[in-house]
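Extended Data, panel c. Modelled sequence:
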Amino acid sequence: PPAVGGGGHRPAGTPRHPLAPPGRDPESPQPQAEVRVARIMATLADLPDSVLLEIFSYLPVRDRIRISRVCHRWKRLVDDRWLWRHVDLTLYTMRPKVMWHLLRRYMASRLHSLRMGGYLFSGSQAPQLSPALMRALGQKCPNLKRLCLHVADLSMVPITSLPCTLRTLELHSCEISMAWLLKEQDPTVLPLLECIVLDRVPAFRDEHLQGLTRFRALRSLVLGGTYRVTETGLDAGLQELSYLQRLEVLGCTLSADSTLLAISRHLRDVRKIRLTVRGLSAPGLSVLEGMPALESLCLLGPLITPEMPSPAEILSSCLAMPKLRVLELQGLGWEGQEAERILCRGLPHCMVIVRACPKESMDWW
């Protein structure tokens, strides 16, 4: 009989190895599939630079800097411009000295989007955002397009110190000076600003809304929790902001009906509307019928009023919006229900999205 070591079959009567899997001789050559699997096993060192950069981009800033000490290759990758396009500093209470080091060493001309906190609730000894830092951002970061400030005290920071390259400015739970957004201020400030987000900014009121006309490039406005804006102020403000193409009114004291009425009067070119359904009724929704440019409508719950339009009433109004392509309903509790099926069947030309309120994405930029 052929020898076992030569790759032949086991002679008849020879006992099987006790650990051998069924149908497999422990002394036979390794199958080709297992050889291929063994060859494709990779370590971090085997990954290309582009994959490592994608992995590193999910790390907090502090960890990015730490991994630069692992080896020369990782140090080179941490210095890569691509990795510092979007920076989130809201995770840290950062001393001014560290912030200045990051600005000079890593961000500079690479930076496109920056998210940072001002530590408004951390006590008087906590570092605050300064006019000098804002001016340095403008000077050292010529490609900075988006700035998101969280819980920051900006009452001593003039709006003229913000980088003039900004296209998006987001203020979340920030204190601002009363003079920041008044109409009488310099109209040449932030000449490229296209989008402004005002989320829980307590000082923002009617006269500030009218003062937004100074930003001639402005096309998107998001108001969240701006409780000092009145229905009269919103109507007067939108009359002067008739060129807006996107408007979001979320969690404000304004009723949805009054908001939609002001939109239908003054924003005939608006393309995207997003608002909470507090105070929404079928007649209030019907004022959007015939809006010539409206492409996307998003209604956010939760359902708290019996006047809320039924799915059939929402369908009827949407069919009268000639360019509507996206209808999104969030947090209404209709996902998987008959309401969703009615809307999907009745709006075959639209993308109908019915879902719970999503969690915040890590890709904030």
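The mean pLDDT is 84. This feature is highlighted in the accompanying rendering.
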